Amino acid sequence: MINDDGRRLAFHVTPGHSPAIVLDAGGGLDSSYWKDLVPKLAAATGSEIITYDRAGLGDSDEVPGPWKVESAVSDLETGLRELGVTRNVILVAHSQAGEVATYFTRANPRLVSGAVLVDASLPELYTDKEIARLVAANKPQVDAAKADPSTKENRQLIATAENYAPMHRAYHQAAWPDRVPATVIVSEKTPFDGSPEDARLWRDAATAFAKAGPDRTLVTAEGSSHDIPIERPGLVLNEIEKMATAHR
């Protein structure tokens, strides 16, 4: 358990050599999302593997008020520092964790050697028009969470929704550092399988991100839903292994 600004955060470590591989799951998901991939990744790379529960998820403490990506970045910075990880990190970020990875890498470009962004939320998606569409689409789920009995999961959903629009308007302006290579794995079905327009925009954002800087590779997980690590673990493992090998 790591302490950051009064928050207790759960980190899980599989010992190994550098580079350290840090796995960060998507919105509403904790470190258990990676439970099947961790032993395979450790065996394939020999690297130190780190998973953790962001605040409000798994065994980590909740934080009152709207979800703030800055707090999530601070939590990860503190956790890695306390674990003695001060160089050569490979970030693996799924879905909402792409936002944490982007801001973390911007703040720590010399700490992060590379990233594998797995159907990640990327800045290019969040035009004003798309933010409005997503806020409207998510409203019934958020309203239901407010009406239902309060649970950790519901509170986390509500916290994320509270400042969704301003946070993503700011995120739209965030740029990935050119010095940090990234592999972008995009799913065929995306998180918006029921909305062809949003699915197209999600895939277009991944393509635009990959083209926007040097040392970026786009990989399509054909036939996969948003849960690429569950449905195509071999693909994710292979791309992480390639990135880790390049920075051993």
Automatic annotation (TrEMBL):
Q: Where is the AB hydrolase-1 domain?
A: 21-236
According to the UniProt entry, its GO molecular function terms are: hydrolase activity
The record's keywords, sorted A to Z, are:
Hydrolase
Q: Which domain of life is it from?
A: Bacteria
Q: Name one Pfam family in it.
A: Abhydrolase_6
- Identify the Gene3D superfamilies for this entry: alpha/beta hydrolase
Q: Which InterPro entries match?
A: AB_hydrolase_1, AB_hydrolase_fold, Carboxylesterase_BioH
Know the name of this protein? Alpha/beta fold hydrolase
Per the UniProt record, the source organism is Streptomyces pulveraceus
